[in-house]
Amino acid sequence: MERAKERYAEAVRAKAAKEAAGSWREVQEIRAYCDAAEGAYPDDAETVRWTEWARRYADQIDPLREAPRSPELPEEVRLDQLEPFLDGWSPYGPETGTC
Fold first, then answer.
1. 47 within domain boundaries
2. pLDDT per residue over 8-32, tens digit each?
3. Distance separating alpha carbons of residues 9 and 3, to the nearest angstrom
4. First CA to last CA distance, the chain
């Protein structure tokens, strides 16, 4: 069970890292799009208004606007949450398992 709890914690951390990386990539894409739009239409007022808004939005969703932190892990993990990390064993004990 302890190993399953460790594996569960690793899965929580991995999910958070992937989500943060995905958000960061999205922010980078928005900013690159703004650069390209402004480069293609530097004198177009509507383009400038649009990209200014888009840059503000990117700033709001940027996961690096604050220092990254490891996700908080729950103090108690439900048995059903551990089940995927038990390699087929039942978290409820051998008498209820399907091993």
1. yes
2. 899 999 999 999 999 999 999 999 9
3. 10
4. 15
If one counts the domains in the chain, the total is: 1
Does residue 91 form part of some domain? no
Query: By three-state DSSP, how is residue 41 classified?
Result: coil
User: Which of these, 69, 60, 66, lies nearest to 27 by C-alpha position?
Assistant: 60
Per-residue pLDDT, 94: 64
The two structure tokens encoding residue 36 = 């390209």
Among residues 73, 92, 76, 87, the alpha carbon closest in space to that of 11 is found at 73
* Count of CA atoms in the C-beta half-sphere (13 A) of 43: 0
Q: Which helix (DSSP H) or strand (DSSP E) does residue 49 occupy?
A: helix 45-61
User: What is the residue range of 13's domain?
Assistant: 2-85
